[in-house]
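Quick bug: N-formylglutamate amidohydrolase output formatted oddly.
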Amino acid sequence: MIDGLPYKQVGETKRGGLVCVADHASNFVPEDVSLGLAKGLIDSHIAVDIGVNGVAERMARRHGIPAHLALVSRLVVDLHREEDHAAVVPTTSDGHLIPGNIGADVEGRLKSYYRPYHAALEKWLDEAAPELIISLHSFTPKLETSNEQRPWEIALLYNTDDRAARHAIRLFGELGLNVGDNEPYSGTQLNATMNRHAEAKGRYYCAIEVRQDLIATRAEQARFAAMIADVCGRVALALD
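Here's what came back:
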């Protein structure tokens, strides 16, 4: 974390532009939190959205889309869940036990990480008054608890407002990507941050998931940053 904060903001905001939010951009675990994870899991998809930080920072620094990025692992507290969600401090993830979270001080983690993150995000968005919010995530090609390959290269999530998502699906498809509504879960199930900061405020948003193996390197991250910036810019124009 930076100066004890569970987030960082990259790039200059300008009112009415595009912004990016990444709730799962870090696998950092504070020293006073012991998760008891098996070796290697802290670098896997259960702890962080692989590749997202690189894409978001590139979008901020090269494409003028400022970013609000999490600086704490989703295994410490899941910033993309409601406060009262059973898995806001997860005890399992994709079949893996998180022993240190059993009996954890959930209220303490909400106070230290979750609420400061969302309070800062709310203030940042109010000041930016964005034309479109890009909520950026990545997904593993196959969950360990499932035998099914997830079909998309890019997937879109939404809850009750699919206006931006429909344009994005069309535009990504025109670029030759395999794109569609996310599987096996949708934004009607997992859309907490955008429900709170976009749908509840009448703001347009694209909740985008990129397959993690497609953004594993800096070159791939640069490619997808440019692509997402271009598509979302055109989505914003289509929504005018």
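Actually, after a second look the formatting is fine. Residues 106-128 form the longest helix (23 residues). Closing.
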